[in-house]
């Protein structure tokens, strides 16, 4: 298992970061320490780089991600070795740290799901803000098939994406769903031909990146907070963020662009 940066490839162009899970021979598992460390670093870099306005997460090869490494699980190696308290700690500093980091990324993340998204791979897609799937993809919350549970937060993420009854069906059966079902249930927002996937994701990313970047980051924060605050406290937070937005340079530029019927040029100020 490589510990180099090539386990997740990274590129930045036109304010868009593209992150590619790059272990196609093993279907892009995300349970290895090297993958957790690399994705965590990439998210932290995006959080602190005002030039990055949106990210795309995809997989190399035919799969998006098979989730956990089943071979390592069977051999009791890596995060799957040790006594219960040791595995507890391994989950917290490994896959759960990854879940907190990706879900908490300051910029929007588009999951460009190029193929099967299974177990923790399905949950990785759910940690993103937007999901576009290739017609060759499918999804499975398949932990019960291995006699385990969604230890990465999937039992929290999935009901919020598709509702409790459908989430229960996926989690209790472990059955896969195709992209037509995923689209109908709201797990993904678009399904496209395999050859159109990255073009579609980049096109959506460009629309996001064209907007004032601080407003986009604040809007993402509000969307995340909406699930854990009551309405009154949420309105207080919205008022504070709106006051900051009204005093930004980008707000003044957006007003000028609107009045002058032109595209705005935003700097993040």
Automatic annotation (TrEMBL):
Any single Pfam family the record assigns to this protein: ECH_1
Q: Which UniProt keywords apply?
A: Fatty acid metabolism, Lipid metabolism, Lyase
Q: Say yes or no: keyword Nucleotide-binding present.
A: no
Per the record, what are the reactions this protein catalyses?
a 4-saturated-(3S)-3-hydroxyacyl-CoA = a (3E)-enoyl-CoA + H2O; a (3S)-3-hydroxyacyl-CoA = a (2E)-enoyl-CoA + H2O
| Listed EC numbers | 4.2.1.17
Q: Which GO terms describe its biological process?
A: fatty acid beta-oxidation
- Molecular function, one GO term: 3-hydroxyacyl-CoA dehydratase activity
* Record InterPro entries: ClpP/crotonase-like_dom_sf (IPR029045), Enoyl-CoA_hyd/isom_CS (IPR018376), Enoyl-CoA_hydra/iso (IPR001753), Enoyl-CoA_hydra_C (IPR014748)
Q: What does this protein do?
A: Could possibly oxidize fatty acids using specific components.
The UniProt entry, under PANTHER family, shows:
1,2-EPOXYPHENYLACETYL-COA ISOMERASE, ENOYL-COA HYDRATASE-RELATED
Annotated family = Belongs to the enoyl-CoA hydratase/isomerase family.
Family annotation (NCBIfam families):
PRK09245.1
Protein name in UniProt: Enoyl-CoA hydratase
Source species: Williamsia marianensis
């Amino acid at each position: 298992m490589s510990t180099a940066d090539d386990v997740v490839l990274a590129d930045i162009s036109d304010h868009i970061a593209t992150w590619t899970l790059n272990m196609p021979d093993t279907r892009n598992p995300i349970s290895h320490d090297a993958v957790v460390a690399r994705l965590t670093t990439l998210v932290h870099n995006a959080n602190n780089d005002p030039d990055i306005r949106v990210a795309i997460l995809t997989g190399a090869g035919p799969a998006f991600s098979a989730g956990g490494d089943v071979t390592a699980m069977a051999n009791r190696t890596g995060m799957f070795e040790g006594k219960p308290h040791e595995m507890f700690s391994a989950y917290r500093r490994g896959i759960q740290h990854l879940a907190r980091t990706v879900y908490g990324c300051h910029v929007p993340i588009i999951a460009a799901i190029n193929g099967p998204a299974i177990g923790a791979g399905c949950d990785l897609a759910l940690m993103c803000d937007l999901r576009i799937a290739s017609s060759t993809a499918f999804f499975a919350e398949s932990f019960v098939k291995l006699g385990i549970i969604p230890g990465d937060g999937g039992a929290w993420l999935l009901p919020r994406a598709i509702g409790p009854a459908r989430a229960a069906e996926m989690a209790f059966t472990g059955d896969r769903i195709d992209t037509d079902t995923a689209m109908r249930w709201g797990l993904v927002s678009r399904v496209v031909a395999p050859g159109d996937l990255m073009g579609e994701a980049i096109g959506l990313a460009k629309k996001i990146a064209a907007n004032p970047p601080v407003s986009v980051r604040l809007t993402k924060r509000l969307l995340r907070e909406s699930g854990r605050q009551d309405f009154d406290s949420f309105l207080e937070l919205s008022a504070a963020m709106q006051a900051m937005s009204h005093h930004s340079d980008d707000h003044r530029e957006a007003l000028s662009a609107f009045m002058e019927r032109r595209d705005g040029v935003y700097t993040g100020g």
